[in-house]
Write a structure and sequence with these properties.
CATH class of one domain: Alpha Beta
Oligomer: single chain
Number of helices: 7
Structural class: mainly beta
Shape: elongated
Mean pLDDT: 74
CATH architecture of one domain: 3-Layer(aba) Sandwich
Number of strands: 35
Distance between the termini: 39 Å
Strand order of the largest sheet: 3-1-2-33-35-34-32
CATH topology of one domain: Pathogenesis-related Protein p14a
């Protein structure tokens, strides 16, 4: 486990979520608020328990006497042996089984060179090896299997469709797999599906596909085994595999050697988001809050005010803003001048229906010492259609504070790609799980284009440093930030699924102390309200690919941690789960919204 003062994570070697053929340079970084950064190197153990990063060479000389083995061609229907249990559920063949012939009857010496180090694991071996598949095993014929067990496509509302697609090499009998679910109470794994069924084996150089509906809010584990410990790519055919969840690719080996004896992928399936049909009212969608009580093209703004002991000093006003010039236009829509609140500690709630557009709310204290907390616990809270967008309980210095508000943001302003929706979903189901786990009200993040624009600009700037180790935060910003980077050839340079990226920020650090878990705390920081993510890609001169991922948060997390002695035990959970925090601006650069 990294030291408590470390925040720059370089990953080298094996990793079940990111197996790759050549090398990995994956860096992730989260900004504490404030905190001094240190660098450190982190190495993972391989499946066999050897540390990556150390180069080890082992040679295996085997005298193998190969037999004449010939697989007789047979029809698909007659060569299958079906199992009506959970094994190999819903699998079909794509393309037909291919006949394999192995007629080597010579004595040969086989040398196998295994290298483990910074460039991953490479396996070289001769052009042929002994074919020792048992003739007592029948071949899995997914054509007939598919007819008897149709692929299940319509999942329940609390499920997501998992699809598994793999192709065997010329030694299909060496391949097996299993899918397991983790029990939430005991932590034990139990098998949901596996293949091939008992007394069966897979055809050589044949593609298989299958699917299963998986219940949301659960961890799953996919394990792929190779009997001969040489994987199924690339010396004896282009074996490959991939899997998707909810139609989104989670992993694709892309005909690369990504494992030898075993590949393990752990993944979480979140609860599905309810679809929004085009042309229908999406006011109840998970991205837009509740329906407005004000009618079409309007939203209800509720202003909740509580003064301190000197209420007569407190004033506020709500004004319309020209979005092009960002200047106030016209007279105030609502306001409270000096001496309106003649009594101390006065509370007032004002409701107004606002047409879509941009507005500015300004709170003023006549003396210049704010409304909290020296002379009472004054505050101002603003809600759009019952969604809290602004809290001003930390207005404790200065004469005034102003916040821009965008009404109708979801309908008129928000533009989200599918990948951006995945970032939002990946954060929010984790936030809900964590907040409720500690009996706190769940606070979802709202996606914001202006944060996404800032994140994208910094991601593009970081491409300049793709050739060097490490990744840096943008200096002098007041937003929260999580960063990640992956570089390399083949699979290392692929576009990783959003779930994998956010999982590295969250699940990977959930048992770590603060500040080592700074990605985790930022992503789930309860008083943060807004999220925007950006990515950038560069084709490198060495033929590899560099990818940068940046997420920005408002308000910033990892705030005021020293006041709670957060590096001791679980003290970091106290500020992380609070309703409000004083770090960074309340609103994103483009304004607050629901």
């Amino acid at each position: 486990m990294p030291s408590a003062s470390s925040h720059l994570h370089r990953l080298t070697g094996a990793n079940p979520e990111y197996p790759a053929p050549l090398r990995e340079d994956y860096v992730q970084l989260s900004r504490p608020w404030p905190i001094e950064l240190e660098k450190f190197s982190l190495q993972f153990a391989s499946n066999r328990g050897e540390l990556r990063g150390k180069r080890r060479t082992s040679c295996l000389n085997l005298h193998l006497r190969q037999k004449n083995l010939r697989r007789e061609s047979s029809s698909a229907a007659s060569s299958s042996n079906h199992d009506d249990g959970a094994h190999d559920e819903g699998f079909e063949v794509v393309g037909g089984p291919q006949e394999s012939r192995h007629d080597v009857s010579v004595s040969l010496e086989r040398s196998m060179l295994v290298e483990r180090g910074g460039e991953g694991e490479r396996l070289t071996s001769p052009e042929s090896k002994e074919y020792i598949g048992s003739d007592s095993l029948a071949y899995v014929d997914p054509y007939d299997h598919h007819r008897r067990r149709h692929l299940r496509r319509n999942c329940n509302s609390d499920e997501k469709l998992w699809e598994f697609d793999f192709s065997t090499d010329r030694y299909g009998y060496e391949t097996s797999w299993s899918l397991e679910i983790k029990d939430k109470t005991s932590g034990r794994w139990s098998t949901l599906s596996s293949g091939p069924p008992g007394n069966n084996k897979y055809y050589d150089t044949t593609r298989y596909k299958g699917s299963k509906c998986l219940k949301g809010d659960n961890f799953y584990r996919l394990t792929i085994l190779d009997l001969y410990n040489d994987g199924f790519c690339c010396n004896y055919g282009e074996g490959t595999y991939s899997y998707t969840v909810g139609g989104i690719v989670q992993y694709d080996s892309n005909k690369q050697r990504t494992f030898t004896d075993k590949a393990v992928h752990q993944f979480f399936v979140g609860l599905p988001q309810e679809p929004v049909n085009e042309g229908e009212d999406d006011s109840d969608s998970p991205f837009s809050g509740r329906a407005s009580v004000c009618g079409q093209n309007k939203q209800e703004l509720v202003i909740d005010i509580k003064t301190d002991k000197y209420g007569a000093e407190n004033t506020w006003r709500l004004e319309r803003v020209n979005p092009s010039s960002n200047l106030v236009v016209g007279n105030p829509i609502r306001q409270r001048p000096l001496n309106t609140y003649s009594e101390d500690n006065t509370s007032e709630t004002v409701s107004v229906c606002l047409p879509y557009g941009k507005y500015r709310f300004t709170m003023t204290d006549g003396v210049g010492d704010g409304i909290c907390c020296k002379d009472g616990n004054g505050h101002y809270h603003l809600f759009l259609d019952d969604v809290q967008i602004i809290y001003g309980s930390d207005f404790n210095i200065g004469r005034s504070q102003s916040h821009d508000i965008v009404v109708g943001y979801q309908q008129n302003e928000l533009e989200m790609t599918q990948r951006e929706r995945e970032y939002l979903d990946a954060h929010n189901w984790r936030r809900e799980k964590f907040h409720k786990q500690f009996n706190s009200e769940y606070v979802p993040l709202i996606y914001d284009n202006s944060l996404a624009e800032d994140a994208t600009k910094w991601a593009e700037e970081l491409l300049r440093d793709c050739g060097v180790q490490g990744i840096e935060h943008e200096p002098d910003i007041d937003q929260g930030e999580n960063l990640a980077k992956n570089t390399g050839s083949g699979t290392w340079g692929q576009l990783y699924p959003v779930e994998n990226i956010v999982r590295r920020w969250v699940e990977r650090e959930e048992t770590w102390p603060y500040p080592s878990n700074a990605h985790f705390t930022q992503a789930l920081w309860r008083s943060a309200r807004y999220l925007g993510c950006g990515e950038a890609t560069l084709a490198m001169d060495n033929g590899g690919t560099c990818r940068i991922q940046v997420c920005r948060y408002s308000r910033a997390g990892n705030c005021n941690m020293g006041a709670y002695n957060s590096s001791q035990g679980d003290n970091w959970k106290v500020p992380m789960l609070m309703d409000h925090n004083p770090c960074g601006p309340v609103c994103p650069p483009g304004g607050c919204h629901s």
